[in-house]
Amino acid sequence: MFDLTAYLARLDLPEAPAADVEGLAALQRAHRLAIPFENLDVKLGRGVAIDSASVFDKLVTRRRGGYCFEQNRLLLDALAAIGFTARPLLARVWLGMTEPQPLTHTLSLVTIDGREWIADAGFGGSYAPILPLEDGAEAEAPDGSRHRLERHDDYGWMLLRAGVPVSTTTSADQLGWQQQYSFDLRTVYDADLAAGNWWTSTAPESRFTQLVIASIVLPFGFATLVDRNYRRHSSEGTTSGEITDPRVYRIRMSLMFGIDLTVEEIAELALF
Length: 272
Hints:
The mean pLDDT is 95. Helices cover 32% and strands 28% of the residues. By secondary structure, the chain is α+β, with helices and mostly antiparallel strands. The radius of gyration is 17 Å and the shape is globular. It has one domain: Arylamine N-acetyltransferase fold (2-Layer Sandwich). The chain has an 8-stranded antiparallel β-sheet with strand order 5-4-3-2-9-8-7-6. A hairpin with a 2-residue loop joins strand 11 (221-226) and strand 12 (229-234).
């Protein structure tokens, strides 16, 4: 049984939202404001379990974060508990890439009153509000950027973002529309998610085996920490820099991302 009360407390929501469009938008936003995106267990050699019980224990009970296969597993379970109709999709990430990548991202397709929406609580490179599955649909994110869905001849659908870059995979001059990820609507099975999670968490070519990554949505912005490189964008402007002291890294992880690491864990990350 999904403990909806504990999940809502983790999100600092007093009650479950209604199973409608407004409720979906509020739930996804609260989720990303409260639960950071991170891949620390990959870099710490612990592996990533994506079954419902393991994900709930890590992200809710132990108040950690996770990456897409964890974040969107938790969101899907919460949506089902509230009464939404939703299923997973798989996507190819294009942010910072020039060649097609494996299906290493997952998001959710939600049907409300016969209309389909995409919801995603687990993309670490940016944050898109919920969007109707319609060609040209747009929405504005808390950091002031805009996201747009477009039909794509080769990949089905493409999500794009325009605005000040928040990910360290993009440079300051990339202010136009940038591809985030592509996806189609084919049925996704648990085995498909397991295969994507396995590649993401173990393949030498995977970004998540090469880098230590954390990000979180802010009320009016977005913050990322990739290895020792920090970037925060909000209505007040953009700040960035390199962290050179492990003590500062530990404090930043705790205060900004809500992730409390031991001195020993930071040493295991081998960043300093």
